Amino acid sequence: MPATPLRLALINSSVREGRFGPTVANWITSLAKERSDLQVDPIDIADHALPYELSHNPDDEVRHALSKVSPRLADADAFIVVTPEYNHSFPASLKNLIDWHRSEWEAKPVGFVSYGGLSGGLRSVEQLRPVFAELHAVTVRDVVSFHNCWGQFDETGALTDPTPAATAAATLFDQLVWWGLALREAREKRPYGG
Predict the structure, then answer these.
(1) Cβ neighbours of residue 167 under 8 Å, at least 6 residues apart?
(2) Distance separating alpha carbons of residues 166 and 174, to the nearest angstrom
(3) Does some domain include residue 1?
(4) N vs C: which end of the chain shows fewer Cβ within 10 Å?
């Protein structure tokens, strides 16, 4: 176990009315908090309304909005993105958060928890991998995916059959911790210059 737990930013990316994202995000957050090697910071994009007009010189209102989320991303050693699949892709709200930041993602691992219909959100994940690669982030191989997710959780937000997803989550956490510690150590010895 690391002397200092890995700081994990866990991002719930859906802002759609009636969204299912909080159910999935709360589930993965509760599992992450059980691990002594992770320090979890849940971030709900719905709480951070950033404009879609990107600027190198944002006004005071935008700077204030960024000040509530940017330092949290910068402090993270690793990320888990909880993403739905909308029209065979990921939500615009997530791309907007990604695009407002650059150095915050660099030389850090990103894992995914996806959900949706038949594909379980996996098309979102596969489209996010090259986006994060462009930002010099490392995406881990294994994901947690919920196919036809609405029938897998009960009214309290608990999984009706938790074992397969919990097993997949353990693999995801293990990969994030390995990459997160390796990259944190590398960044401490030699700042990344992507």
Answers:
(1) none
(2) 12
(3) no
(4) N
Domain enclosing residue 19, as ranges: 6-189
Encoding tokens for residue 179? 């990459």
What would the pLDDT profile of 81-92 be if each residue is shown by its tens digit? 999 999 999 999
pTM confidence score: 0.95
Q: Is residue 120 part of a domain?
A: yes
d(CA 65, CA 72): 12
Residue 20 · residue 104 · CB < 8 Å: no
Here the tokens at position 57 are 């010189």
Residues 112 and 143 sit within 8 Å (Cβ to Cβ):
yes
Q: What whole-number distance in Å separates Cα of residue 48 and Cα of residue 33?
A: 23
Number of domains in the chain: 1
Query: 46-54 contacts: CB < 8 A, separation 24 or more?
Result: 46/12, 46/14, 46/15, 46/19, 46/93, 48/97, 50/96, 50/97, 50/100, 52/92, 52/96, 54/99, 54/100
pLDDT tens-digit series, residues 135-148: 999 999 999 999 99
